[in-house]
Amino acid sequence: MEQLGVVGKPNVGKSTFFSAATLAPAQIANYPFTTIEANRGVGFVKARCPHPEFGLAGCNPRTSRCEGGVRFVAVEMIDVAGLVPGAHLGKGMGNQFLDDLRQASALVHVVDASGCTDAEGNACADGSRDPVEDVRFLSSELDEWIAGILGKNWERLAKRSEAEGTKAEVLLADKYAGLGITEPDIKQALHNSPVPEKFAKWTQEDLLAFASALRHLSKPMIIAANKADVASEANVGRLRELEGHLVIPTAAEYELALKRAAKSGLISYTPGERRFTVNEPGKLSPPQKKALDRIAEFLSKSEVGTGVQLCVEQAFFKLLDMMVVYPVEDEGKLTDKDGNVLPDAFLMKRGKTARDLAYKVHTDLGKHFIRAINARTRRVIGAEHPLEDADVIKIVAGA
């Protein structure tokens, strides 16, 4: 399962964002380094379920749920310890923070858009901290971390590359394998960064330029401009003007309140929507009514709801360019061997093939792949046939 890392300096609402997205327990408090151990949970991205299109009354998801033709597909999320300047040198919880991020495929950087927390995560005068600086420092820390993985070895690797005639991407891929970074990632980063062709001619500045290019490819990041309910339009605007960054205003506290109210039955609310319905107004206490009224007013003015669900979905669908595919065993009834309708929904990168889906379902299916069948067209497709969003596919494999 692809993993989404929730990152940021302390005390910006990072753990609140994580809890709002997953409803997993996380310690939340108004002081730095509340999060010591990484919190892990499961969030969801929304996708259209094929069952209405096929005229079916419903489906039987095993690892997700379906509501009104909308499939909620599970994704793994991790909330790591807060990052402060100098984290790559071990300052704060830096070493643990960075180690926890190794397998994250993408990152959500939660920023205090209100400007009310300083570089260390301590409370400061309203608006005195420029949130753009938080984006810059975290990006810099990640670049330093990625560059630091080579450490002093990069000079030795350069000499080895020169002596053996081994391509730099081969040697670098071996060093970065622990971050889930592949040789094609390395090759593309070398192409994208302004570094000398010969590894032996690199400077420390070249190494940092390469690390930055590699970060953009291997750990793409979306900016959650959090505390948007109290942030100035100027602050949010400055964040949105950052070149090369996808920025979404968020109100994580409101999303968490809505999720909890929905779980208790007080309201009906679909994550990502700009409205909710109070089920029994007479059961609301005065404080509850006041809080929900305040949230409803915010949602009426927001173009993205609370923004939390959108951040998660944009991370997978835009940053990682993924789609949802539905494997079945009976292409006529859209069922598995037990008769469950559309039981599974898998996130896959665009461009992946029928054989890739077979391997994702089970290694043996991939190894013994014969053909696949598209349930919509009833046509046989080959191993290298590229899949499309919302495809319903049967895999046929040998013994």
Describe the fold and architecture.
With 399 residues, the protein is an alpha/beta fold. The protein has three domains: 3-131 and 220-315, Rossmann fold (3-Layer(aba) Sandwich), CATH 3.40.50; 144-217, Helicase, Ruva Protein, domain 3, CATH 1.10.8.470; 324-397, Roll (Ubiquitin-like (UB roll)). The chain has helices spanning 14-22, 94-100, 131-150, 153-164, 168-176, 183-192, 204-218, 233-240, 252-263, 286-301, 308-319, 354-361, 363-367, and strands at 3-7, 39-48, 65-67, 70-79, 106-112, 221-226, 246-249, 267-268, 277-278, 322-328, 346-349, 369-374, 379-381, 392-397. α5 (168-176) crosses α6 and α6 (183-192) crosses α7 (204-218).
Number of domains: 3
Q: What's the CATH superfamily of the largest domain, by name?
A: P-loop containing nucleotide triphosphate hydrolases
* Share of helical residues: 25-40%
* Proportion of beta-strand residues: 15-25%
Shape designation: flat
Count every beta strand, where a strand is a DSSP E run of 2 or more residues. 14
Q: Sheet with the most strands?
A: 7 strands, mixed
What is the CATH architecture descriptor of the largest domain?
3-Layer(aba) Sandwich
The tally of helices reads 13
CATH topology of the largest domain: the name is Rossmann fold
Low-confidence region ranges = 26-36
Helix and strand pattern:
EHEEEHEHHHHHEHEHEEHHEEHHEEE
Q: Tell me the radius of gyration.
A: 23 Å
> For the residues shown, what is the average pLDDT?
89
Q: Which structural category fits the helices and strands?
A: alpha/beta
Which class of the largest domain in CATH terms?
Alpha Beta
Instruction: Quote the distance from N terminus to C terminus.
Output: 27 Å
